[in-house]
């Protein structure tokens, strides 16, 4: 079911102006807190009325300010899963799931509920009340109740934010499987970078009420359109420079601390000599050059030397900060723990790294 929206809303000094279009896919709406993500979901669902615009679900127009169309929530067939589960405390798991389909025949209700109990790994819990469930079980029950009503669009507002890491990880995998079984047009709101990368085949980055970039996961994560998008998505290594020359489809960018950096020139966006640009590279894309290895042809360019000034554990990886140049410019590098141990990357050690030109993205 296609979903197309073009909405505007003013909230005090904050303006929302968004335009999105998606098919039967899972789109992640990603951005910092206060960017307007939840308000967008509320406008789609009918909880909040836009000042102007339109919302089309398939061939049905559920909102159009110009035509004075504003379907009530119950008629939109849009499921909304909140952070707080919103289960009825006096109802069992079975009764909660069946709540929105009470108009069906008893046999059909039982079939649907049993199917969803199995899909959501809630078998054996159907007679329990919400206070007898774990946080993950409550969220799966809430999602089952939402899916039972067969919504045309599913809205998920940071559904896993209140859960611990292990439960979140399992529920993310569940959601991918559920979307495969029930391919409903879905928008999931999150400000969790890992969650956005895991769940979003397409990602829309929201900032100050506007879409800064929307596209496939690889494009958005590795080819950001703006410095804001790069920062939000954890690139961290964002530098300013000027175009010094071209050759073999590459641009040469000069930076006071990094020197002359070669990067693949962006398609469809011509650059000129002397033009000021930004360029970036993700922390996990930076290669450590081992002193005992001959340089590969692929990493002859963009060799940077610096001093390790910080090393911080991050689960299975470590974050290394390398000071380069004369003005204390820092490169953020993310490496597996075994690499850090093998190369003995301690604070104070001087090392060389390679910024592979195919992993550098130029922001104009």
Please explain how this structure is put together.
The protein has helices at residues 37-45, 73-76, 93-98, 106-119, 135-148, 165-181, 193-199, 217-222, 227-232, 337-343, and strands at 3-11, 14-22, 26-30, 52-57, 60-64, 69-70, 78-81, 153-157, 185-190, 202-207, 210-216, 237-247, 250-255, 259-264, 276-281, 287-289, 303-314, 317-324, 329-336, 350-354, 361-363. The chain has 364 residues and is α+β, with helices and mostly antiparallel strands. The protein folds into two domains: 3-231, 3-Layer(aba) Sandwich (Rossmann fold); 235-363, RNA polymerase II/Efflux pump adaptor protein, barrel-sandwich hybrid domain (OB fold (Dihydrolipoamide Acetyltransferase, E2P), Beta Barrel), CATH 2.40.50. The strands form four sheets. Strands 7-8-9-3-10-11 form a six-stranded mixed β-sheet, with helices on both faces. A five-stranded antiparallel β-sheet has the order 2-1-4-5-6, covered by helices on one side. The longest helix has 17 residues, at 165-181. It is globular. The protein starts with a strand and ends with a strand.
């Amino acid at each position: 079911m296609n979903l197309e929206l073009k909405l505007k809303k003013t909230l005090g000094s904050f303006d929302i102006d968004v335009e999105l279009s998606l098919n039967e896919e899972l789109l992640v709406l990603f951005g910092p807190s206060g960017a307007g993500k939840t308000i967008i979901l509320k406008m789609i669902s009918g909880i909040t009325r836009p000042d102007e615009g339109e919302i089309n679900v398939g061939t049905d127009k559920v909102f159009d300010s110009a035509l004075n169309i504003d379907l009530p929530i119950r008629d939109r067939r849009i499921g909304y899963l909140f952070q707080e589960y919103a289960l009825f405390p006096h109802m069992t798991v079975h009764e909660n799931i069946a709540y929105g389909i009470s108009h069906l025949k008893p046999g059909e209700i039982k079939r649907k509920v049993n199917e969803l109990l199995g899909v959501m790994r809630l078998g054996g819990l159907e007679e329990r009340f919400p206070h007898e469930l774990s946080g993950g079980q409550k969220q799966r029950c809430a999602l089952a109740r939402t899916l039972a009503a067969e919504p045309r669009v599913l809205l998920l507002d940071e559904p896993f934010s209140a859960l611990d890491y292990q439960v979140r990880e399992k529920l993310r995998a569940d959601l991918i499987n559920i979307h495969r079984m029930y391919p409903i047009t879905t928008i999931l709101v999150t400000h969790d970078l890992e969650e956005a990368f895991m769940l979003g085949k397409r990602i829309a980055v929201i900032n100050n009420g506007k879409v800064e970039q929307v596209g496939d996961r690889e494009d958005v994560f590795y080819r950001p359109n703006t410095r804001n998008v790069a920062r939000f998505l954890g690139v961290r290594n964002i530098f300013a420079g000027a175009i010094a020359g071209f050759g073999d489809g590459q641009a040469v960018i000069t930076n006071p601390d990094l020197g002359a950096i070669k990067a693949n020139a962006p398609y469809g966006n011509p650059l000129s000599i002397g033009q000021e640009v930004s360029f970036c590279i993700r922390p996990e894309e930076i290669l450590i050059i081992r002193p005992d290895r001959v340089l590969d042809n692929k990493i002859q360019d963009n060799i940077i030397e610096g001093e390790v000034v910080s090393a911080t554990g991050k689960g299975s990886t470590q974050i290394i900060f390398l000071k380069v140049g004369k003005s204390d410019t820092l490169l953020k590098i993310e490496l597996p723990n075994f690499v850090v141990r093998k190369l003995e990357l301690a604070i104070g050690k001087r090392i060389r790294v390679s910024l592979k030109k195919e992993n550098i993205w130029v922001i104009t």
